[in-house]
# Entry
Amino acid sequence: MYGELIEELAEAIRICRKCPLGELRKNAVPGEGSVRAKVMFVGEAPGEEEDNQGRPFVGRAGQLLRQLIAHIQLEEGEYYIGNVLKCRPPENRNPLPLEIEACKPYLFSQIALIKPLLIVPLGNFGLQVLVGPKLTIARARGKLFSKDGMHFFPTYHPAAVLRGSARLRQTLVEDFEEIPKLLIELGI
Ligand code: URA
# Structure
């Protein structure tokens, strides 16, 4: 039943015209993964490759994300990958407030249907939309936040790590390695 609801939501996203990005996209990117996911990763917005394919995190940053997911041995049925925005902003610019406002009900509905045990915001946009508008990833990463019965463990966006230092990459790896431990602590 949840599978059908999440697919209905994906259909609504594919035809969405709630903000101007709907006119610019090749494909909307609703998200993908298991409706029974324990962990939900929330990125920022689709890039060029995601817009081409209609799938989240299939470009370079996606390769790194998927390597990290494999590294912590999450299996396919255990995670879901989504984004704050479902359509690509031109030239991959930052999401605008009006785009976030228009799009975030889709993310909230996905969370309500999937009910992940742990939500991992990747970068500032997921963090600020889901956990707190004044938080920054540099300070909030690697910490567990609990809010409205949900648990959040923010970390860097893989794209920031691709642009950044080896140290940053190591921090991202270490944050990911906390995820299986948190799942145990949170009681699965
Ligand atoms: N970056 C994101 O934030 N999301 C994607 O889906 C791809 C790259």
Remarks:
- The mean pLDDT is 97.
- The chain is about 50% helix and 10% strand.
- Residues 163 and 169 are 10 Å apart (CA to CA).
- The longest strand covers residues 39-43.
